[in-house]
Specification:
Number of strands: 35
Radius of gyration: 45 Å
Structural class: alpha+beta
Largest sheet: 5 strands, antiparallel
Strand content: 25-35%
């Protein structure tokens, strides 16, 4: 407001001060009220900010218990970590195991004859590598592994030096690793199988386009290694690991065994000392769960301490907290305490509420842990203790795995009934009855070509290896090997299994995919394949998805996974294995405290939560205060203008009166006898 500087000059009166006092008298009660409102609103905002911080910190302490995944309820003790390392999952059974390792699995290694330099040419043509089992003595015969793809390495002018071939092999995925070793006699190309085990040995067949001889030591055939010719040196054999578990002999193609003991993965690093087996004990583990629960209790107590300070009121000292009497603070505290003092819906065991873990509420609302009772309860039932907090699903059927739930899933125990098991697409050849398919059987140029479509992926024409097959199993293995070596199928990650049905004298093909996406079809066959092998251009039977109900409501099948999309069990998904139809037990779903706590916290902390609304309301009120201040200033400016105008007129009038009085005084003083008259007055 502009200062008043000229008012009262004419009259000599302090009219400026009078106007200022009148304006201040008008402003003061409103200004005092607005200051009080602003102070209260700012204090409320500060209190809400402190409450938000306390709630956010507590919400952070819930994160470790928001899911049962990642918690271990099994502990493994290993007496010999130097030779064996072991990890355990929650599926492992309690028990002890005596493990003795007599031999580690090894990968086959081959070395070429020496070359004078890494730039020496190795010839041109193709190297075909098959993986399987070599029988001896030496290299007498080879049986290919039907589950391993054939690898074909093309050697031409771009990679036909020793170093060029090494780099080319390593830049692709041929199942082998190449290196060059100088052993003092020259540079050797070394090939190491990427896989260990007796069934991962290499057979290398060469097509030498240089001199057209595939078995001599000139050109590319110098790298041949098969039953006919071994032009490379085997420096390490392919072998399985040999060990005993509680006296039971076990063999493994790798040094990592994840099925020898259910729920336990063993990694063999060296052979154990004879007569001194490693002792591995699997017991209950509750440490992770205990720590997470105690962190939650600590987080709750820290939050409640802050809230108690914010809402405190001391009649004796007159001290009050920032949010004393605030309904938002009071309602939140009530909701949280109500959750923590109530049993968890759906739990029926010995642990149903915090008090069952020795966790009780003190007079100030904070939680106290009876460590003795807590440790005993959690150690005895770690999964039940976890279910008190985290969402947990359990199945009564060991071949039905609970795989998931959603926010829509209602706590409950749901019966599982399977009406259809997931299956793979199958194509069954016609029985060869006249004559019966007999072995040995010859695959030649008139019955070796076939084209398939597997799960929608067409292979093009494939050629089964021409050979004399001693049995139906050998023929089926050769076909499976050829099919799974097809580049188009490999790129699409599709595979086929082939078996021989000796009872009906026919071949059977299956896609290895489960469900309605699983299909198999023969597009074309060679001239004599229908008559000799019973295979014709025909579509197989498509696979089907699992079907059934959970809680009496039909689910949606995808492969072997059944997922619910409606009803109380909506969101539950299970993976159904085994061969049993009908009643498959039940699945129980429990949410635990954390979900309810998190929902309450989110209702206060969320972008549309209670605290956000309270902050917006306070900020809006602060804006209203500022608007009222601005309005007050306008009113005071208008009042000043009016008062200045009115007092200016008064100033002029008084000045005029003073001028007239002075004139009259002067005139009277000039009259005869005026002085005597004035003196008498």
């Amino acid at each position: 407001m502009a200062g008043i500087s000229s008012l009262g000059i004419g009259s000599g009166l302090d009219l400026s001060g009078l106007v200022t006092n009148l304006i201040n008298a008008e402003r003061s009660p409103v200004d005092s009220r607005l200051n009080s409102q602003e102070s209260n609103l700012t204090t409320d905002l500060s209190g809400v900010g402190l409450m938000r911080g306390a709630l956010s910190s507590f919400q952070g302490s819930l994160s470790s218990l928001s899911s049962a995944d990642g918690f271990s309820n099994r502990k493994i003790t290993n007496s010999n970590t130097g030779d064996i390392s072991a990890t355990v999952t929650n599926d492992a059974s309690l028990g002890s195991y005596s493990i003795e390792v007599s031999k580690l699995a090894s990968a086959q290694s081959l070395a070429s004859s020496p070359y004078t330099s890494v730039g020496d040419e190795v010839g041109t043509g193709t190297l075909q590598i098959k993986f399987g089992t070599i029988t001896g003595p030496g290299f007498t015969s080879f049986k290919a592994d039907a589950n391993s793809a054939i690898q074909t390495i093309t050697v031409d002018s771009t990679n036909n030096t020793l170093s060029g071939l090494k780099d080319y092999i390593n830049s692709n995925e041929f199942g082998v690793t190449a290196s060059i070793v100088n052993d003092g006699t020259g540079y050797r190309l070394a090939l190491l199988s990427d896989n260990t085990g007796a069934n991962a040995a290499m057979e290398i067949t060469v097509t030498d386009t240089g001199d057209a001889s595939n078995i001599d030591t000139n050109g590319l055939s110098n790298l041949a290694y098969n039953a006919t010719v071994q032009n490379v040196l085997q420096t390490q054999t392919a072998a399985d690991a040999n060990l005993t578990i509680n006296g039971l002999p076990v063999t493994s193609a790798t040094n990592t065994l994840d099925e020898a003991i259910e729920g336990v993965t063993l990694s063999l690093t060296s052979e154990t000392e004879a007569g001194s087996p490693a002792q591995i004990v699997i017991s209950e583990e509750s440490g992770q769960i205990s720590l997470a629960i105690k962190d939650l209790v600590t987080g709750f107590n820290s939050m409640l301490s802050t809230l108690n300070d914010l809402g405190s009121s001391n009649p004796e000292t007159g001290e009050v907290g920032i949010l004393a009497g605030d309904s938002t603070l009071r309602n939140f505290t009530y909701q949280i305490r109500n959750v923590l003092t109530s049993p968890v819906d759906g739990l029926t065991g010995e642990i149903r509420a915090l008090v069952d873990l020795g966790i009780t509420t003190q007079s100030d609302g904070t939680l106290s842990i009876d460590n003795s009772k807590f440790d005993a309860a959690v150690n005895a039932n770690p999964l039940d203790a976890l279910a008190l907090f985290a969402p947990v699903g359990q199945s009564t059927d060991s071949l039905v795995e609970f795989t998931g739930s959603t926010d829509d899933t209602v706590v409950g125990n749901y019966a599982v009934n399977i009406t259809q098991l997931a299956s793979r697409a199958e194509l069954v050849g016609n029985p060869v009855l006249d004559p019966v398919l007999a072995f040995p059987f010859t695959i030649d140029t008139l019955n070796d070509d076939i084209s398939l479509t597997v799960d929608g992926v067409s292979t093009g024409v494939m050629s089964i290896a021409q050979a004399i097959y001693a049995s139906g199993d050998d023929l089926a293995a050769a076909m499976q090997l050829q099919f799974n070596s097809n580049t188009l199928l490999k790129d699409a990650e599709k595979t086929v299994s082939v078996t021989f049905d000796s009872t009906n004298s026919r071949l059977v093909m299956n896609s290895t995919t489960f469900g309605s996406e699983s299909t198999i079809k023969i597009n074309s066959v060679d001239t004599n394949m229908a008559a000799q092998l019973g295979l014709t251009a025909v579509s197989g039977t498509d696979g089907v998805d699992v079907a059934g109900t959970i809680g009496g409501v039909s689910g949606i099948g995808e492969g072997s996974v059944l997922t619910m999309e409606s009803g109380d069990s909506s969101g539950i998904s299970i993976d159904v294995q085994g061969n049993t139809l009908g009643d498959r037990g039940s699945v129980k779903f429990v949410r635990g405290f954390v979900n309810s706590l998190d929902n309450i916290l989110e209702s206060y902390l969320g972008s549309e939560g209670v605290l956000k609304s309270k902050e917006e309301q306070a900020n809006k009120s602060l804006e209203d205060v500022q608007d009222e201040r601005a309005s007050l200033e306008l009113r005071m400016e208008a009042l000043e203008v009016r008062l200045v105008r009115e007092f200016s007129a008064l100033d002029i009038l008084i000045s005029q009166f003073q001028t007239t009085g002075n004139f009259l005084r002067q005139q009277l003083s000039n009259l005869p006898g005026s002085g005597q008259l004035l003196n008498n007055n």
